[in-house]
């Protein structure tokens, strides 16, 4: 992967170890499932390219989108420790993943302490992102939730080279926004129109643009993001 502002690669000797340890690459088309909730996939993955979403399905068919994953994110750590996956993962774009055998996870952790630390770092930052999402669901109003989500997506796009010029080209339907933010479709549509009129977020079916990131952060009451690049395994 080319050098990107939001990612840093391990040292060359660790990269060589990863190259020998990994099982190869897998590709999924937009809309394909990487794995389904309740299954035991044989692999863990690093996202090499593309965007995915992690979802949780209730028995009656209601769906919660938990988060979105970008290049550099590590998929399946929960299953490596707990067995069956509690969620599904679906490709939102065409994606390429680097596959690691799930059964060899502890070999990776024991033989490469730096990678083990990096995985802990990634897990901690995913927990922080989920914490921010819980705050949105519990305390932010609809417009603030939507701006917070747009800032998260665009910033991850900038950091991973997917948002040239600050515009993230990503198809996110209003239904998916509603499933992420706990809103009705009507409320989602009205909020999107209001944010466009206010000049805070221009969110169309295929792209997300934030004219003033600092103002958007103030509106959603978001903290300044960490400038430290994410580990890339």
Can you describe what's shown?
There is one protein chain. The protein is an alpha+beta fold. The chain has helices at residues 12-21, 77-82, 105-111, 113-139, 142-159, 174-181, 185-198, 213-220; strands at 7-8, 24-28, 33-35, 43-49, 52-57, 63-69, 74-75, 88-91, 95-101, 167-169, 202-203, 207-209, 230-231. It has a four-stranded antiparallel β-sheet. A four-stranded antiparallel β-sheet has the order 3-8-5-6. The protein has a three-stranded antiparallel β-sheet with strand order 10-12-11. A hairpin with a 5-residue loop joins strand 5 and strand 6 (63-69). Helix 3 crosses helix 4 (113-139) and helix 6 crosses helix 7 (185-198). The longest helix has 27 residues, at 113-139. The protein is globular and about 55 Å long. The chain starts with 6 loop residues before the first strand and ends with a strand.
Q: Which SSEs are present, and which pair or pack?
A:
Blueprint: E1 7-8, H1 12-21, E2 24-28, E3 33-35, E4 43-49, E5 52-57, E6 63-69, E7 74-75, H2 77-82, E8 88-91, E9 95-101, H3 105-111, H4 113-139, H5 142-159, E10 167-169, H6 174-181, H7 185-198, E11 202-203, E12 207-209, H8 213-220, E13 230-231
Parallel strand pairs: 1-13
Antiparallel strand pairs: 2-9, 3-8, 4-7, 4-9, 5-6, 5-8, 10-12, 11-12
């Amino acid at each position: 992967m080319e050098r990107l502002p939001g990612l840093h690669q391990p040292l060359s000797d660790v990269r060589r170890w990863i190259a020998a340890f990994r099982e190869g690459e897998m590709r999924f088309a937009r809309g394909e499932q990487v794995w389904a909730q309740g299954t035991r996939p044989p692999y863990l993955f690093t996202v090499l390219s593309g965007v995915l979403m992690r979802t949780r399905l209730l028995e009656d068919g209601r769906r919660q989108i938990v988060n979105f994953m970008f290049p550099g994110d590590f998929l399946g750590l929960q299953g490596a420790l707990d067995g069956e996956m509690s969620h599904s993962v679906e490709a939102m774009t065409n994606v390429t993943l680097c596959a690691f055998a799930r059964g060899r996870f502890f070999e990776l952790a024991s033989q490469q302490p730096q990678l083990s630390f990096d995985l802990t770092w990634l897990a901690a930052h995913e927990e922080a992102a989920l914490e921010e999402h819980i705050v949105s669901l519990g305390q932010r109003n609809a417009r603030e939730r939507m701006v917070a989500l747009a800032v998260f997506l665009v910033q991850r796009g900038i950091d991973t080279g997917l948002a040239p010029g600050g515009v993230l080209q990503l198809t996110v339907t209003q239904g998916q926004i509603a499933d992420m933010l706990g809103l009705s479709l009507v409320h989602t549509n009205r909020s999107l129109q209001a944010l466009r009129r206010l000049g805070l977020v221009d969110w169309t079916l295929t792209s997300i643009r934030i004219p003033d990131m600092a103002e958007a952060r103030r509106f959603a009451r978001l903290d300044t993001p960490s400038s430290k690049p994410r580990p890339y395994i």
